[in-house]
Every structure is written in structure tokens, then in C-alpha cells.
Write a structure and sequence with these properties.
Layout (H helix, E strand, L loop, with lengths): L2 H14 L5 E2 L2 E2 H16 L5 H8 L16 H27 L3 H11 L8 H23 L4 H14 L2 H10 L4 H8 L1
């Protein structure tokens, strides 16, 4: 791991340490970043530095844009998510510039964090696959406990559609899903 990558990862972790929301005794965004790095290392051990940075920075300072500041409903949710992606990209890109990364690498991280090129760009897709695995591994069960079976089915179907065929196949191998949910990953 290069010194400049270490500097960016430290900067992301330091920013996320300010999250007052706790999960498992840690700032929520910081824990999420560590989980993203762990899953990336497991799923894509040869990931580029830029992809490693994007994975760690996926939720950098997420708490700064409250969902409650956006309208209710799907349109408000999508606007909030898009604003989050832009914010994450801007923060990480600034950290990368400060650490000495070049314009091409910085913009690549920005594209990944804004999710520009899912299904077309291998690294953007890899990041999306990691995001989906992190959701399924650590956040799906608590989410499922709060929502109807119909909503859970829709969320699982949307998650599966975002994933690469290889990642969907791996989900079937790694997770013991009920048949109705597993069917979404077979399609």
C-alpha cells in the first residue's frame, strides 16, 4: 500500500470518526468504511488503489446530508442518494488531490462514488458488487426485520439487478436465502 493511499484512507477514517451515530460501538460511517474495505479485499484482492479508496470512502461523512432534508417518497430518496454520491466523491477527490494523486485517478474515484458506469465500467461495477455484499452481509437482516415481505422482495430484486452476473452467482453460494429471495439472484 502506497504512502499516498495510506494518507487518503487515514483521512477518510478521521472524517468518519466524527459520525455521532454509533453501530457496534463505532462511528457508523467509519465501521461501514472498514466493512467495505474488508469485503473489497475478499472479493477483489487485486483491486486498484483507486478502487480501494472509493470503497473506503463510499459513505464518507454520510451523516452530513440528512435524509429528512429531502422530500418523502421515491423522488426525494433518489435525490438524497444522488446528493450523497456527489458529496462522497467531492470529499474523497479532495483528499486524493491533497495526497498527490493525479487528475485521472481522482476523476476515476469520483465516477465510482457517483456510480457512473454501472454495468459498463469494471471498477464501478466492482464497487457496486461490494456495496451489495456489504448490505446483504451486515445490513439486510436488520432492514428485513422492519419491513413487509413485499418491500423486502422488491429491495432484493433491485439489489440483484445492480450486481454483476458473477456477484449474483456468488450470493447464491455464500448466503442461505429463502427460495423467493434467491430467485432474484438467478435471473
Amino acid at each position: 500500500m502506497s504512502e499516498r493511499m495510506q494518507a487518503v484512507l487515514r483521512a477518510i477514517d478521521a472524517a468518519n470518526a466524527a459520525d455521532r451515530n454509533l453501530d457496534d460501538g463505532m462511528p457508523e460511517a467509519q465501521l461501514y468504511g472498514k466493512r467495505m474495505s474488508e469485503e473489497l479485499n475478499r472479493l477483489f484482492p487485486e483491486a486498484s488503489e483507486v478502487l480501494q479508496i472509493a470503497a473506503r470512502g463510499q459513505h464518507v461523512e454520510r451523516w452530513k446530508l440528512a435524509r429528512s432534508e429531502y422530500p418523502e417518497g421515491r423522488a426525494g430518496y433518489l435525490a438524497w442518494r444522488k446528493a450523497q454520491g456527489v458529496h462522497h466523491a467531492e470529499v474523497v477527490m479532495g483528499m486524493m488531490a491533497k495526497a498527490g494523486y493525479g487528475a485521472e485517478e481522482i476523476e476515476a474515484a469520483g465516477r465510482m462514488l457517483r456510480k457512473e458506469g454501472i454495468k459498463r465500467d469494471a471498477e464501478v461495477q466492482a464497487l457496486e458488487d461490494v456495496i451489495c455484499f456489504v448490505f446483504l452481509k451486515w445490513y439486510f437482516a436488520p432492514f428485513a426485520g422492519k419491513h413487509s415481505a413485499e418491500k423486502i422482495q422488491r429491495i432484493v430484486e433491485k439489489t440483484a439487478r445492480k450486481m454483476s452476473p458473477e456477484a449474483r452467482e456468488r450470493v447464491l453460494y455464500e448466503f442461505d436465502l429463502p427460495e423467493d429471495l434467491a430467485a432474484a439472484f438467478r435471473g
